[in-house]
Amino acid sequence: MSDKLREALRKVSDREREVLGHIARGATYGEIARRMNVSPHTVDTYLRRIRAKTGARNRMHLLLLALSVEGSLMSAIEDMGLLTMPQLPDRPDRAQA
């Protein structure tokens, strides 16, 4: 993690950091609101504050920030169950075709 990102994250409150954790796990605004016992509007407010404090330009940038806060990208992908690739059938030999 870069020094610039570390400095920006020092400005983020504990509740804002909690929202980032939920975002990294793929939760919707409604799910985050229920888990944190706040309204979806409050979740949106937290996210706007995080963007202002960190300079995140859009939702994708915010997601990348959330993933860096939550840990490595691979651990987040693993938590979402996306790491396991489906088994593909064997490819028929082209020489026989």
From TrEMBL:
What Pfam family is a match, any one? GerE
The answer to whether UniProt assigns keyword Transferase to this entry is: no
Q: Which UniProt keywords apply?
A: DNA-binding, Transcription, Transcription regulation
| A biological-process GO annotation | regulation of DNA-templated transcription
Q: Which residues form the HTH luxR-type domain?
A: 5-70
Q: Which domain of life is it from?
A: Bacteria
Gene Ontology molecular-function annotations? DNA binding
SMART domains given in the database record? HTH_LUXR (SM00421)
The record ties this protein, via PROSITE patterns, to:
HTH_LUXR_1 (PS00622), HTH_LUXR_2 (PS50043)
Descriptive protein name: Helix-turn-helix transcriptional regulator
